[in-house]
Amino acid sequence: MSDIPLSGQTEAEHLRTLRKKARRRAVLAHRGLIFGLTVVLLVAFVAVFAPLLAPYDPFAQNLSLRLAPPFWHDTASPEHLLGTDQLGRDYLSRLIYGARISMGIGFGAILISGLIGCTLGLLAGYFGGKVDAVISTIITVRLSMPIILIALAVVAVAGASLKIVIAVIGLLLWDQFAVVTRTATLQVRSLEYIRSAQAIGCSLSHILIREILPNIRAPVIVVATVELAHAILLEAALSFLGLGVQAPLPSWGLMLSEAKTFMFFSPWIITLPGVCLFILTLAINLLGDGLRDVTARGK
Length: 299
Known about the structure:
The chain is mainly alpha-helical and 299 residues long. The protein contains 13 helices and no strands.
């Protein structure tokens, strides 16, 4: 009965309805996608409502309670569920605020890199010829640069701060956006709806933004999820080396760096932020893989 068009529904509308239902079933059946989406939404919720969820001020120090163990230890402090760090700061509160910093840097960097990469990819794929050759050369030059070394050099020269870290990461991760957007634009630029828009005199910005970009959004979203995980890990690496987020901000990478001195005596202090980073990046990658699988089936 579900395959029979409803009264007043055209065949095209009925086919779109069937595709939506099939895509919805594919999403619900993809365990990796559901797990990744759930974890990412949970971490995003924690990041947004960190001031309400954190039981203590993440910057408040209490040296008399320094390195208090978490709840599974016999000598755990009942006031601090996950213990305290080397300065007596509540570790659960710092992990919660660390989620805000990691997600904020990740999304900020992706906005910058996505804007740059999608713009270059759209122009290269739409115009082709010399424009494509020039932009392809720029992409090749960018791909030849080692990201971590360039980031270290720029941050060391410009100084380490939250805004600089976001800008540097965003300016280094646009190449995948450009490659995918260029390839997808090449595939759709000669289709009928693009020619129709050109024939009626639509502006270049209208064609690129209103006609091409919405129809290539699926691969762009997949790239965005992968690069989001990349940006979070890059920030953690910079912070671990002392060139990213600076103390006393509770970045997970900085927490790993501060904990390495005590990891043999209090191993949980380095394990907890490491596990948080692992679970978040795993969830983002599973989300990206799931979106790729679902969009590929829907074609």
